[in-house]
Amino acid sequence: MYWVSVFTEAGIFAILALGLDMVWGWCGDFDLAFYGYLALGSYMTMVLTIGRPTPPVEYIIGGRLPYPLALVLADVAVVALAAVIGAIALRNLREIYFAVTTLGAVSALYVWVENYTPLFDGYNGVYGLINPGQTLLRLTYDGYRVGFLGAVLVVLLLAYLLAQRLSRSPFGRMVRSVREDERASAAYGRPVFFVKYRAYLVGAAFAGLAGGLFAVFISAFNPSAWTPQELLLIYAAILVGGRGNPRGVILGTFVVYVGFIELTRYLPSPASRPDFGPALRQVLIGLLIILMLKFRPEGILPERAGGRQPRRPAPGQAPGLAAGPPAEPAGAVAGAGPASADLADQEGGPQ
Amino acid sequence: MTAALLEIEHLSKSFGGVHAVQDCTFMVPEGHVIGLIGPNGAGKSTVVDLVSGFGRPDAGSVRLAGQQLIGKRPDTISRLGLIRTFQTPREWRNLTVLDNILLAQCRFRRESLRESLLRARRIRREEDADRAVAQAILDRFQLGDLAGERAVRLSGGQKRLLEFARIAAAEPRLVILDEPMGGVNPVLGVRIGEAVRGFADEGRTVLIVEHNLPFIERTCDQVVVMDLGEVIAQGPFSSLRDNARVVDAYLGMDLGHE
Amino acid sequence: MSTFLITVGVGLVTAAILALSAIAFTLEYAVSRVANFAHGELLTIGAYAAYTGQNYFHQNVAAAALIAAAAGMLAGLALNTSVIEQFRGRSPATVLIATLGVSLIVQNVLTMIYGAADVSYSFAQGGLHHVGPFLWTTSDIEVILSAVGVCGLIYLLLQHTRLGKAIRAVSQDRALAQVSGIPARRVVMQTWGLAGAVSGFAGFMLADTLGTFGPTLGFGFLLLTITAAVAGGLGRPYPTLGGALLVGLVIQIGGAYTSSAYQNVYAFLLLVALMLLRPNGLFVHSARAVRA
Lengths: 351, 258, 292
Description:
The structure holds three protein chains of three kinds.
Chain A: H1 2-26, H2 34-49, H3 67-89, H4 95-115, H5 117-120, E1 126-127, H6 141-168, H7 170-180, H8 182-187, H9 192-218, E2 220-221, H10 228-241, H11 246-265, H12 276-295
Antiparallel strand pairs in A: 1-2
Helix pairs in contact in A: 1-6, 1-9, 1-10, 1-11, 2-3, 2-9, 3-4, 3-9, 10-11, 10-12, 11-12
Chain B: E1 4-15, E2 18-29, E3 33-37, H1 44-52, E4 59-64, E5 67-68, H2 74-79, E6 82-84, H3 97-104, H4 113-118, H5 120-140, H6 156-170, E7 174-178, H7 186-201, E8 205-209, H8 213-219, E9 222-227, E10 230-235, H9 244-249
Parallel strand pairs in B: 3-8, 3-9, 6-7, 7-8
Antiparallel strand pairs in B: 1-2, 1-4, 4-5, 9-10
Chain C: H1 2-32, H2 39-53, H3 61-84, H4 92-114, E1 119-120, E2 128-131, E3 134-137, H5 138-160, H6 162-172, H7 174-179, H8 184-210, E4 212-213, H9 217-232, H10 237-257, H11 263-277
Antiparallel strand pairs in C: 1-4, 2-3
Helix pairs in contact in C: 1-5, 1-6, 1-8, 1-9, 1-10, 2-3, 2-4, 2-8, 2-9, 3-8, 5-6, 5-8, 6-8, 9-10, 9-11, 10-11
């Protein structure tokens, strides 16, 4: 059952990572608000399903909708929030300003949720979404959890198919062109802001969905579970697995989440310091991020932008190359210097 | 008298007290190749930026086939049939050369979320047709073998050619080239000149900002000369040598030969 | 009215600390073109260094402040050498993420050493004084005076020393400065050492003002720092002082009328307003470079 839990959480984070990758991998924008979208997805799902609050607990809405419907409505709310934050953050497309704005937005929201109790009961958070439909389906608790894992994997599969289809489509190609060079894209008729905005909203929809699933997984959500640091774990997963590649993103999430968490589970924690082990794990994640960025920024499965490969392979390449992603490491460009092929580096944007 | 495709009237732009462009007026007749020349700081590139929407003028009007361009975003202007290049080649670096052409074909309808999601199969068929056309364009510019390479791996000269291949794919009404000959060797220069005349033969209109005067003389039907933000002459290249203002502006630079 | 002015007084204390943090951040940005998201950790390290050292120096505030500055300086130098310079030439976003990784590491290393729970200093705050319309503790006055002093020293450094000129040159154009004979790499290093020292010192003052603090001390201050730096126009240290003043006052006044917990909300709103209306900073006509 422990493994059921681990894989369920990994699956949920993989959905979140697919969405985040659309914004970071495809668009090239480093967002710090995404965990907020997951949080809102969780909160909204809960307040739409667990019924009215009994004082002194307080929260908004308090509906008793069936879980799948609540999931959808919660996702709509998340996309609405992303529409607001995205409209502000994407306007100023200088790279660090985007990150700063999203950080500011999510920090402000965090503070508001923490302190304005009528919203989601402040510090205490909202809880009580326990296995929706368990009695209806006549399952045991464990049976339900296994079934839920199955459901999460199904949703993940659907999310993957959607992301992969979009990635390989003209839309995916267009989004990446905007990442590569905004001016050139504008010169060829692409409305840069709206392209990024669209991708941002789709990504946020994935995050909201993940949030709705997460609500069932932990049956409670409060502000302490919601920090920018959590998002760094997802970024590490995307970096490791392959930025801009949906398969890579899922691979990375499972590798980092399952593999890493498991490996570090056995780290020592002195009895007087229960924080030690988890803190050490975070340190290792930080190191992983820096090392990946430095030495293999494209990840295990590098990106393949839009569509099939051309029929004629380039001369001098290994025969099998036309069928798969370019094998050369991102930095290996003749006469590189500032014109690095590194996906992580583009100097596009208003000059 | 051929109709004017591009009409620029009294265009002005200052940057913090410096008049980059002052009361600039000229027109580009349809189907012709027009050169825009002048010494450094004459305001030529600023005019290009203003016309293509990459900057807002302080005053003046720009009309493309009668449509006012001032105030429009660069992507909107582009969709009206204008493609411009930049002083350094701006390829989509981490995408393949073929993708660069596919993008330049500007199949906007296919790029919407709905189309990409719901009509994936039909799009794939349409794309196969476009892919063949794209490959043909690449072949025409001797880039055919590089279709699968990431654009960033191309040499400087190849990137220049890729720019022209992209323009060919976009099939614009008006092409504005911003210093296409920058750092280009003579052999490549010939191919670029051929590409430009090729566009004109297809009925496209070309405006070229350039310093390389022999190239301008070879390729252009007419020339507009700017200096210190103003238009100081317009006419066939041969007439410029006798124009005292033009000679003055270039401070005795040899207008004739390489 | 008097409560309003007292709030303004509190805002001035915040602004003083913020001014130092923001100037350091701006210097880091100016010479390395990097938004250092691990900047807050320079403050946190300073605060914890003073905490460790306080027992050795018998409640001597000055000594603790020096230790904090020294620790910050070392941290700044380490950060520059091990991360910033390693990622030179990469896109700003990449370095930003790397600094976030550093932030994660430092916060958690501190947790491993000191635990996640809040700690506090044992320095006395001193009595309250009426200074004009303001009501400040001795500590508060020391904070403001030392902040003014340090800012003054930085001004003198940037304007009247060779290092200052070198810093300004490197921040304008590193390659050009190098070619002109300035040892750019060393200047960058020295700037980071300076920024680190100032940050460590600011961290100590921040922790002292707040009373208790934990490993997230600096990170929580990051958003405010960046807002102040943006208000000043990234890379310009003097307008940044104005930015710090604005931010400090806004969050304290806003917080006084609603709740002090909402400071980040006001900072965010201010940041958004700045970015929509004055992305190049409040006091500038054109962007960039450490200017006179």
